[in-house]
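REQUEST FORM: STRUCTURE PREDICTION
Request ID: SP-0412
Submitted by: Lab K.M.
Chain count: 1
Length (residues): 181
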Amino acid sequence: MAAYFDFPASLSTERLRMRRWRPSDAEAHRSLWAERDVRALRRIGANGRPTVEEMRERLVANPLGAEPGLGLLPIELRDIGEFIGYCGLVVGQASYDEPEIAFELAQRAHGRGYATEAGRAVVEAAASTGRRRLWATVREWNTASFRVLEKLGFDRSGRVDLDPERGDSIWMTRELDPPTV
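STATUS: Completed
RESULT:
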């Protein structure tokens, strides 16, 4: 594993602020799980789990993506502080050296360019760590995420993981410019 500069603990854009997770984010984060497409891997189970308290415990014990040099950051609207989702870098199905960008927004925040705005900030931050490439995996049915990734400069890599039950995963990639000194 190569050495990289740290991924920032917070990022800001014109309309958004991304920061570290707080235990108080558990309820809003769980609501994202409840909104997910039925084909998504992680959803609220028929038994109602994970509960808000279980998600709070996870956030305290191991903040999402807390691996050094990576991380998922909650996204909130700068003007009112409302939690609308998250964006950041994870190992996911990729690697520490070439991580995945991941993002998810509450349905009420869709269609306003927030995912693209947060994604741009994360791509720039990833480049500043010294990484040279990012990946993204997207289910074939997720047209909104494809649009965001294309706006961020990601291209289809040609790799597809077949999954007839939940939809095939399409691998996308983006080369990063080296950081300027």
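NOTES: Strands lie at 11-12, 16-18, 71-77, 83-90, 100-105, 133-139, 155-161, 169-175.
Reviewed by: T.R.
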